[in-house]
Design brief:
Layout lengths: L3 E9 L5 E10 L4 E5 L6 H9 L6 E6 L2 E2 L10 E5 L10 H11 L4 H14 L15 H13 L5 E5 L7 H18 L2 E6 L2 H7 L2 E6 L2 E6 L1 H6 L4 H6 L6 E9 L2 E4 L2 E4 L12 E6 L5 E2 L7 E11 L3 E8 L2 E8 L9 E5 L6 E4 L15
Parallel strand pairs: 3-8, 3-9, 6-7, 7-8
Antiparallel strand pairs: 1-2, 1-4, 4-5, 9-10, 11-12, 11-14, 12-13, 13-16, 14-20, 15-19, 16-17, 16-19, 17-18
Helix pairs in contact: 2-3, 2-4, 3-4
Bound molecules: adenosine-5'-triphosphate and magnesium ion.
Magnesium ion (MG) binds next to helix 1.
C-alpha cells in the first residue's frame, strides 16, 4: 500500500481551461479518501492525473515516496474503476478478470490464485463462465472491481463507479465497496458528486469547488464544522438553511424572523457585522409557547420521508425548513416559533462565504 501526496498540482487543458488550480493534499496510506464536489469542479481531472491519464501542468504527485509525474500509467501500480466499466464483451467473466494479468506475463498459477480470490471476495463464483451481456449492471460493476483487485495495486482509483446503477443497487454496492476496503485496506481514492456516498464511504472527505479544495476532514467533521458556506450547503440533505443576519451582541444574531443565540466562544464577531446564518433542518426545534426567542415560521408544505418529515415554509421573506420525527405530533397551527441550540448555529462571512469560526473550522 502507499500514500498519495499532491503538492500544488495544477491542470490547464489546451485551450486554457484551468480545471485544477493548485491542490495540495496528503492521502494517508490505507485510507478511503473521497473527492466530492459538483459537476465540473475538477475531480476526474485530478484523479486522471494521479492515474497518469492526463499530464500534470504544474506541481508534484507522489505515490509512496516516488514522484510519478513522468511515469507511465502502467508503471504506477494503480488500478482504476470507471463509471463506464468497459468489459470485453466477447470474454467470460473469468477472462475479463484474468486478461490484464495474462498480458503482463503473470505466471498461470498466480493468475488462477488471484482471480479465484477476487471472485470469492466479490461473490462472482457462480458467474465466472458468463459473458458481460448475461450479467446485470451491478454484476458487471463487480467484474470491473474484480479486474482492478487482481492487479493487487498500491492504490485504487474510482471515478463515479456507481452512477450507472439504480438507486437500490447503488446503496448495496456502496456497502460492498466499503466492506471490501475494510478487508483489503488498500489506499482508495473515490470520486463522486453524491454527498451521501461521500459521507458513508469515506475516512477522509475532500470537498472541491471550481478546481480548489474547500475543506478536508472526516465526514462528521465536515458535516458539523463546515469551513465555508459552500461546504455547509453542499453536504447534508435537506440542505442547511442559510439566512441573512446581523450580530447584535456577543452570542446573539438578529434575523428577519427573530433572533438566535450562537456560541460566543466559537465565533468571535464584532457587533454590527452582517453575516450569513446557517442552521441544519434537523437542528431546528419547535419553541415552547412561552419562549420569546427563536424565529417565526410559516408552514407551506410537508414532505413525508417515512421515518421523518420535512416541513417547508418561510421565516419572513426567507425559505426555511425543519425536520420532525414522523412519530412526533405535527402542530395544527401554520405559524410557529422555531429555535436551535447555540452549539449548532453556524456563521459565515457574507462576502467571502468563509466560516467565522475562531479556529477556521479545519479549512484547507
Ligand atoms: N479534455 C478536456 N479539455 C478541455 N477541458 C476539459 C477537458 N476535460 C475536462 N475539461 C474541463 O475541466 C473542468 C473539470 O472537468 P472534470 O471532468 O475534471 O470535472 P468533474 O468534477 O469530474 O465533473 P463531473 O462530476 O461532471 O464528472 C470542466 O470545466 C471541464 O469542462
Ligand atoms: Mg468526472
Amino acid at each position: 500500500m502507499a500514500s498519495v501526496t499532491l503538492e500544488n498540482v495544477k491542470k490547464v487543458y489546451p485551450g486554457g481551461v484551468e480545471a485544477v488550480k493548485g491542490i495540495t493534499l496528503a492521502i494517508p496510506d490505507g485510507s478511503f479518501t473521497v473527492l466530492l464536489g459538483p459537476s465540473g469542479c475538477g475531480k476526474s481531472t485530478l484523479l486522471r492525473m494521479i492515474a497518469g491519464l492526463e499530464t500534470v501542468t504544474d506541481g508534484v504527485i507522489r505515490i509512496g515516496s516516488r514522484v510519478v509525474n513522468n511515469i507511465e500509467p502502467s508503471e504506477r501500480d494503480i488500478a482504476m474503476v470507471f463509471q463506464n466499466y468497459a468489459l470485453y464483451p466477447h470474454m467470460t467473466v473469468w477472462d475479463n478478470m484474468a486478461y490484464g494479468l495474462k498480458n503482463r506475463g503473470t505466471p498461470k498459477d498466480e493468475i488462477v490464485r488471484r482471480v479465484t480470490e477476487a471472485a470469492r471476495l466479490l461473490e462472482l463464483e457462480p458467474l465466472l463462465k458468463r459473458r458481460p451481456r448475461e450479467l446485470s449492471g451491478g454484476q458487471r460493476q463487480r467484474v470491473a472491481m474484480g479486474r482492478a483487485i487482481v492487479r493487487e495495486p498500491q492504490v485504487f482509483l474510482f471515478d463515479e463507479p456507481l452512477s450507472n446503477l439504480d438507486a437500490k443497487l447503488r446503496v448495496q454496492t456502496r456497502i460492498e465497496i466499503r466492506r471490501l476496503h475494510n478487508r483489503l485496506k488498500a489506499t482508495s481514492i473515490f470520486v463522486t458528486h453524491d454527498q451521501v456516498e461521500a459521507m458513508t464511504l469515506a475516512d477522509l472527505v475532500v470537498v472541491m469547488n471550481q478546481g480548489r479544495i474547500e475543506q478536508v476532514g472526516a465526514p462528521l467533521d465536515v458535516y458539523r464544522r463546515p469551513a465555508s458556506r459552500f461546504v455547509a450547503t453542499f453536504i447534508g440533505s435537506p440542505a442547511m438553511n442559510m439566512l441573512r443576519g446581523r450580530v447584535v451582541e456577543p452570542g446573539r444574531v438578529e434575523l428577519e424572523g427573530g433572533s438566535l443565540a450562537f456560541d460566543p466562544a466559537e465565533f468571535v464577531i464584532p457587533s454590527g457585522s452582517e453575516v450569513d446564518v446557517g442552521v441544519r433542518p434537523e437542528d431546528l426545534v419547535i419553541a415552547s409557547s412561552d419562549e420569546a426567542a427563536g424565529l417565526s415560521f410559516t408552514r407551506e408544505f410537508i414532505e413525508e420521508l417515512g421515518a421523518t418529515r420535512v416541513v417547508h415554509g418561510s421565516s419572513g421573506s426567507e425559505l426555511l425548513s425543519f425536520i420532525l420525527a414522523s412519530s412526533a405530533p405535527l402542530p395544527s397551527e401554520t405559524t410557529l416559533r422555531l429555535t436551535a441550540p447555540s452549539s449548532v448555529v453556524h456563521l459565515f462571512d457574507r462576502s467571502t462565504g468563509a466560516s467565522l469560526r475562531r479556529d477556521g473550522a479545519g479549512s484547507a
